[in-house]
Structures are given as C-alpha cells and as structure tokens.
Amino acid sequence: MGNVDYSKYSKLSPFELKDKLIELAQSRTDRMMLNAGRGNPNFLATVPRRAFFQLGLFSATESEFSFSYMPEGLGGFPRSEGLQSRFDHFILENRDKPGVVFLGKAISYVRDQLGLDPDAFLLEMVEGVLGCNYPVPDRMLRVSETIIKEYVLREMGVQGMAKESLDLFAVEGGTAAMAYIFNSLKENKIIEKGDRIAIGTPIFTPYLEIPKLNDYQLEEVLIQADANLGWQYPESELRKLEDPSIKAFFLVNPSNPPSVKMSDEGLEILADIVKKRPDLIILTDDVYGTFADNFKSLFAICPDNTILVYSFSKYFGATGWRLGVIALSNNNILDHKIAALSKKDKKELEERYSSLTTEPANIKFIDRLVADSRNVALNHTAGLSTPQQVQMVLFALFNMMDSRQNYKEAVKSVVRDRDATLYRQLGVDVPQDPNAVDYYTLINLENTSRILYGDEFADWVIKNKNPTELLFRVADETGVVLLPGSGFGVSHPSARASLANLNEYQYAAIGNSLRKFAEETYREYQQVTKKK
C-alpha cells in the first residue's frame, strides 16, 4: 500500500473510517468484500411485519367505507362503530394469510392478558397505520404507550414497578434518543459547559464524540472496563462516580463493542454508589439487552436516577424503521434538579416553554424532551409517526406473546454460532463468559498474536505494527472490513467485528483471512529477527 501515514486516520470516527476501508476492500473484482464493520443485522422478525401489512389492508378498506359514495381512491377516517365486528370478519375470511391470525391473537392478548380496552386498541392501531392524524398525545399514543411499558419492564428485568410509575417518549431510534437527551439536558441547565461527565468505555463512539462538541464542551471522565475481567468495570473505576463533581454517568449495557452485560456485582456496586450520590444522573443505552440471558438494566436497580434508552432496531432487525423509546420514572431526579434551579434559571426556562402551557414550571422533563425535539415552537407537530408506533407495538406484542421465546432463542443462537465459527477458523478458543451477548466481538490483536505465535512475536507486533495500518492492510489484501477498537475507547489494539450482518460461512472466511494475515505477519517477523 506504499508509504501511507496512517496516523492521520486516528482521529476519524470508526464509522467514517469504515468508508475508507470499504473503498479499499472493494477495489478488486476477484473477491467478495466482507463488511463486518457495521452492526446492521441481516435477520429480522417477519410475523409482526406481515401483521403490519395485513392491518394496513384492513384499515385502507375501512377508510374507503367512510367515503363509499366518492370516486375510488378517496377515503375518510375509520368509523369506530362496528369496527371490532368487521375486524373479526376480516380475520375469519383471511385466516389462511400469514400475519392475520397473529392480529386476531393480539387483540385477545391485549384484552385478556394486559387488561386493556380492545376497542380502543383496535381503533388506535387502525388510525395509526393509516397515519391520518398527528400523533396525539405527541409523546406517544395512549394504548401503545401502555403496551410498550409492559414490554420494556419485562425485557429490562424491572420487577415490582407499576406501569403507571414510568413515562415513555417514542423516538426515531436510539440515535434520536441520544440527540434529544443531550440537547434537553443542556437546555434545561442540568448539564452545562465545563461540567464533568463519566463515560463507561468501551462505548458506542458518539457518546465519546458528542460531549466534545462546541454545543456542550463537557469534560469526560472515563470509567474503563477491564478486558482481563471479562470487560466488567473494576470497582475502583466505578467508585470514581462517588466524586460529587461528576454530574452524570453514560454507558451502553450490554456494551458496544465488547458485547457484555454488566455483572450482578457491578449493578450492586452502582446501586451502593447511588445511595451515596442520590444526585447522580445515569443514562443507560440498553439496545442489546434483549440478546442477553437474564438481563437486568440499571433502570431496574436505580430507576429514579436513570434515563433508559431502548431501541427496537437490532433485536427485530428494524434499523430502517427507526424505532426507540426513552423511559423515565415519574419520580426521576431530572425533574427534581429542574425544581431546584435558581430563580433566574427557572424564569428563563418558563419563558422558553411559555407557549405550551399557562404553567410552564410544571412541565416534566420528558415532556420538555418532546418540545425540545421540535424547537418548542413546533411542539404541536412533535411525536413519532403513528405507523412507526403501530409497528413498534406489533414487535412488542410478538415478543410478549411468544411464551416459549422461540424468536429470542433463535436470534441469540444465530450470533453465537457465528462467533464460534469465526474464532474456530482463526484458531483461537471462543471466549466463554456468562455475561457475553455476542452481538459484536472484539478481536484482541495482542492476545491473538500471543496465542498463535508466542510472547516475543506479540511484543514485536505491538511495537512495530500500527493497528490502523493492520485494518487497512486486511481490507486491501483480504477484502475484510473491521473497525478499530480504539474508536470505541478500547485502550489496547483490537478490531471490532459485528456478528449480526453476515452469514456463518462468511464469518468462517473472515476467520480464515485473519489467520492467513497472522501467518504472513509471522513470516515477516521471522525474516526481520533472522537479519538481526
């Protein structure tokens, strides 16, 4: 590849560096490019999608009934009178079509298991899939919010908490949640320029990049997970949070890219810290929690201190749908912090939200998130599109109605089999960890070199090889695209591979390519050391 200065790429986000690597990997036509860099799954939930489209067909017909005297192609709002009866007839007439039976069972489940009004649910779904009204309430449709609350509480391992004790804001995926939360924390003077925030690393890169922007200018304190402890946070690292100057702790759990959930011991330590620091804000991004065994979110441990972000993107294979939620306890610390602001700050915020209500001081933080997401002035048009909310509800019901959890076990098996295949072909034992989720894997370049060819070779590689150069060479010579661990806050040289977006034989090819590359590097090492 010539004399290339790879250090210039070190400041790029790994997701921007990815484009350079893909360009190299695609530069030759005699091989297949294997992109294991991005975590877009190549599996997806089909039943709730079929149900969505069948519901759409039923709802379009309902709309046409309202304006049946008009020319074809013009419809009106669906009628609530007799809607359930017509829907039952639709289910009976179309029960042989995939997705239709699921819709009928969903109505029964909502009524009999969740105790909700089936008529209100059906009307909300029919109107929602048609997208014929603005989202009302703008934060989330009423029945939909209740259903998603149930899903979130179950999947996040929250016990003993009533659905009425939390609020949800339906958002355009986890990325929108991040943007909205950072912005509203700043706008409401909860976090200000120069404040110190802790970030659990390794972590999804934007959590490292956003605080440095001129908009925020926050000082980052890294809480570093230890590879030698199975990527858990050492107690000494977590205890940094006892420093009262640290305003908040942001983390992804299970982590990205180590793909490991926080251990029970870590959760207990953090709960103890919150007892000592009841003012500590926690933001936990739990998108991979549904891939973990017996997952428990920090929201289950200290709900009043925690902002929970959950996305439907990965588990249901729905990255293009942009579906996520922000969850907050009714007694959350953010509302208390706003109430404790100075008179000057309170007055300024009351002016900011004065167009929304005659009592702007009483607006909850989660509703401020909604308003801020549309620059306050456009609050009346805020909210996730209603068809998106309908698909979100169908995803959640599909998971909750699956008493044997067949779908969950299937997707977990898919990523774990791929992980085993990659490491088998690489010639390294698969890391065994009961807390591992295996959505991603971090290939430790130093440890792999040490296992394959010994300590001296590993020491030589670390001393003489730039990890970024290795990624470029792997892309150029093998067509395999991996991302640098350093871009996620990993302290040692490593490469992140997604285990979600290729097929198993392709992960075998990646393992073979990496093993071949290691062999070639070892021969180079032998030649160099012989000359000496």
TrEMBL record:
Domain Aminotransferase class I/classII large positions: 174-506
Q: Which Pfam families match?
A: Aminotran_1_2
Q: Which InterPro entries match?
A: Aminotransferase_I/II_large, Aspartate_4-decarboxylase, AspAT/PAT-like, NHTrfase_class1_PyrdxlP-BS, PyrdxlP-dep_Trfase, PyrdxlP-dep_Trfase_major, PyrdxlP-dep_Trfase_small
What EC designation does it have?
2.6.1.-
Q: Which keywords accompany this UniProt record?
A: Aminotransferase, Pyridoxal phosphate, Transferase
Tell me yes or no: is Hydrolase among this UniProt entry's keywords. Answer: no
What molecular function does GO assign, one term? transaminase activity
Ranges annotated as spanning the membrane: none
**Keyword Transferase on this protein?**
yes
Q: Which domain of life is it from?
A: Bacteria
One Gene Ontology term of the biological-process aspect is:
aspartate metabolic process
Cofactor(s) recorded in Swiss-Prot or TrEMBL: pyridoxal 5'-phosphate
Q: Which family does it belong to?
A: Belongs to the class-I pyridoxal-phosphate-dependent aminotransferase family.
**NCBIfam families tied to this protein:** asp_4_decarbox (TIGR03801), PRK09275.1 (NF006755)
Name recorded for this polypeptide = Aminotransferase
